[in-house]
């Protein structure tokens, strides 16, 4: 399963970079979306893929007995999903405005400030 | 004991101010007062924090009283505290400058709340002791900077913003990837704890891979060679006050992050990582200054000079000797004030001369000799002319380079200093010294510039003071460098149990 996830994550990163190198700004944003998802999946995978062992402390105990899934990694992913969502929402609005102002969606035409 | 909360104040104050000024969004004068007085208050608190840290040692606040490796900690060591003070100085100067330069239209779009949020993000990044928390603060300051960058919505701003947003998001994703791999490797996010566990790993190859990922992520944020292209494409597009605070602070957050992780966590394989840093530093200095030589727009020249100056700061980290780190910290202190000030001067040149283009400017010395003097102080300091602050910064770094026998770095640093002087003289000759290209009646005689002069004068006075009273500043840099070179103190302060 971990191998499969590794291949999937690698594909995500590759696809993201490929999309970001395209000239269309829409594809650029799709690349950014894929990139943030790739990073989230990576954290999900490296923290260990445990199934069916929720990190719940039994009633009356102070500690979990035996192995349990890692809740911190999931908190981290949740945070970065929220952040990624907010930032990408901004990026979408930005390219919308930019297309309106510059009258093109071609990155090659946006060289006025270089 | 109660003073621990001091560590959180530089984050809480701007967050509260931001929220407060959002509630009075339509009341312009209230927003301005909140901006000016609030940042002044922030400055006072940061200076207090710095003095306290210098007196007592590294300050640690366990947020929510969760003990160290599990909860999030805020840590104020000398480097962090110095950076917070510099951020507050820049924030204060920008807020003062904004009073007269930011239009009401932008205030209605939330200029002041965004400014406070940016300062909160920057201070949070300087003070956190948790690597994921660092990522969060990076995003906070990025979102605020995105919005500030496009206030106004002109074509150039949009084009610049797309590059700025894309490359910064790419860098954030790489940063997050590196955090994920780190967590997979050592199972902790607390930086001190990561440092302990990384050092005890048998297989150091993976550590070096992660170090490279962090290096790329922070090098993009710091605009180091060859990842700097977003900076000259975007920094000259927004409002002058926004440009000034970006130029002063944002790339330096990347530099700070490099200093933090490459002194605390990744010190096992310095032969590899710091060698790469050295070459990055050399090429950053060189490309930045050569790029500036080709430009004829004041803000673009200054933007390229940010890049070349970043090279000096990374050089201090790359040499990794006590003197080099002192030089690096000193350089950051000198640079933030000077660079923000130069952008503010550029804004005033625009107000008085009607343009940012050197070809259209002229005669400013004859008409506004005061501004000429105020330009010369930061400009000559940037080039490293004694007795201003830049001289000592460059001198310490170059001396460290000579002691470490890094001859290429020393040679390039000297050459870049010379070329910086050339750039500054170019601005001087074109904008101040030569006669006005044509009598320009279109520029109305501007009034009410006194506050702008005072702001610039304040920062210029700081530059002069850092030069004239270099000894106490040097001592603070020395303390910061000593703490960086001996991470055991930082680790013990964070992990050594709760403070009694």
Automatic annotation (TrEMBL), chain A:
It comes from Alkalimonas cellulosilytica. This is Na+/H+ antiporter subunit C. It holds the Pfam family Oxidored_q2. InterPro entries: CPA3_antiporter_subunitC, NUOK/Mnh_C1-like. Keywords: Cell membrane, Membrane, Transmembrane, Transmembrane helix. Its main location: membrane. Coiled coil: none annotated. Belongs to the CPA3 antiporters (TC 2.A.63) subunit C family. It is a multi-pass membrane protein. It is found in: Cell membrane.
From TrEMBL, chain B:
The keyword Transmembrane helix applies. Residues 130-418 form the NADH:quinone oxidoreductase/Mrp antiporter transmembrane domain. The chain crosses the membrane at residues 6-26, 33-51, 71-97, 109-128, 134-152, 164-186, 206-228, 240-261, 276-294, 306-326, 371-393, 405-429, 450-470. The keyword Repeat does not apply. GO terms for cellular component: plasma membrane. InterPro entries: CPA3_Na-H_Antiporter_D (IPR050586), NADH_UbQ_OxRdtase (IPR003918), ND/Mrp_TM (IPR001750). Pfam families: Proton_antipo_M. GO terms for molecular function: NADH dehydrogenase (ubiquinone) activity. One of its GO terms (biological process) is ATP synthesis coupled electron transport. It comes from the Bacteria. It is found in: Cell membrane; Membrane. Keywords: Cell membrane, Membrane, Transmembrane, Transmembrane helix. It is a multi-pass membrane protein. Belongs to the CPA3 antiporters (TC 2.A.63) subunit D family. PANTHER family: NA(+)_H(+) ANTIPORTER SUBUNIT D1 (PTHR42703:SF1), NADH DEHYDROGENASE (PTHR42703). NCBIfam families: PRK12663.1. This is Multisubunit sodium/proton antiporter, MrpD subunit (TC 2.A.63.1). It comes from Alkalimonas amylolytica.
């Amino acid at each position: 399963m971990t191998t499969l996830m590794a291949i999937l994550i690698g594909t995500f990163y590759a696809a993201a970079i490929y999309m970001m190198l395209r000239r269309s700004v829409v594809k650029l944003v799709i690349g950014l979306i894929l990139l943030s998802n790739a990073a989230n999946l990576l954290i999900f995978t490296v923290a260990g893929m445990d199934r069916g062992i929720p990190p719940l402390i039994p009633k009356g105990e102070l500690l979990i007995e035996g192995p349990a899934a890692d809740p911190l990694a999931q908190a981290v992913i949740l945070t970065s999903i929220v952040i990624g969502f907010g930032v990408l929402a901004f990026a979408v609005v930005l390219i919308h405005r930019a297309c309106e102002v510059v009258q093109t969606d071609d990155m090659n035409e946006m060289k006025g400030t270089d | 004991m109660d003073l621990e909360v001091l560590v959180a104040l530089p984050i809480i104050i701007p967050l509260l101010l931001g929220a407060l000024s959002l509630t009075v969004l339509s009341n312009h004068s209230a927003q301005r007062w909140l901006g000016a007085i609030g940042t002044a208050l922030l400055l006072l608190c940061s200076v207090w924090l710095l003095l306290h840290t210098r007196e007592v040692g590294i300050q640690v606040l366990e947020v929510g009283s969760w003990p160290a490796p599990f909860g999030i900690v805020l840590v104020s060591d000398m480097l962090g505290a110095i950076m917070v003070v510099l951020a507050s100085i820049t924030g204060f100067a920008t807020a003062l400058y904004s009073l007269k330069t930011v239009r009401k239209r932008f205030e209605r779009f939330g200029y002041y709340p965004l400014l406070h949020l940016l300062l909160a993000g920057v201070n949070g990044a300087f003070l956190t002791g948790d690597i994921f928390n660092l990522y969060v603060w990076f995003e906070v300051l990025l979102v605020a900077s995105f919005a500030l960058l496009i206030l106004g919505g002109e074509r150039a701003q949009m084009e610049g913003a797309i590059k700025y947003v894309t490359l910064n998001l790419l860098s954030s994703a790489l940063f997050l990837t590196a955090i994920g791999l780190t967590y997979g490797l050592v199972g902790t996010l607390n930086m001190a704890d990561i440092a302990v566990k990384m050092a005890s790993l048998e297989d150091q190859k993976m550590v070096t891979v992660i170090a490279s990922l962090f290096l790329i992520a922070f090098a993009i944020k710091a605009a180091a060679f060859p990842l700097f292209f977003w900076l000259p494409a975007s920094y000259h597009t927004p409002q002058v006050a926004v440009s000034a605070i970006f130029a002063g602070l944002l790339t330096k957050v990347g530099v700070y992050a490099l200093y933090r992780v490459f002194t605390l966590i990744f010190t096992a394989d310095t032969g590899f990582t710091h060698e790469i840093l050295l070459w990055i530093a050399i090429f950053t200095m060189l490309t930045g200054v050569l790029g500036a030589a080709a430009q004829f727009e004041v803000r673009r020249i200054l933007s390229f000079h940010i890049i070349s100056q970043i090279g000096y700061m990374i050089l201090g980290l790359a040499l990794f000797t006590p003197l080099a780190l002192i030089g690096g910290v000193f350089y950051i202190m000198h640079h933030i004030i000077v660079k923000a000030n130069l952008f503010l001067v550029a804004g005033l040149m625009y107000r008085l001369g009607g343009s940012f283009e050197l070809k259209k400017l002229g005669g400013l010395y004859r008409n506004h000799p005061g501004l000429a003097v105020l330009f010369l102080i930061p400009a000559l300091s940037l080039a490293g002319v004694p007795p201003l602050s830049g001289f000592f910064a460059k001198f310490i770094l170059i001396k460290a380079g000579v002691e470490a026998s890094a001859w290429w770095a020393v040679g390039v640093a000297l050459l870049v200093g010379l070329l910086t002087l050339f750039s500054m003289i170019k601005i001087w000759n074109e904008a101040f010294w030569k006669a006005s290209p044509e009598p320009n009646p279109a520029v109305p005689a501007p009034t009410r510039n006194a506050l702008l002069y005072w702001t610039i004068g304040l920062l210029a006075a700081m530059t002069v003071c850092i030069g004239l009273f270099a000894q106490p500043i040097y001592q603070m840099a020395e303390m910061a460098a000593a703490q960086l070179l001996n991470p055991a103190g930082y680790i013990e302060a964070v992990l050594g149990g709760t403070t009694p």
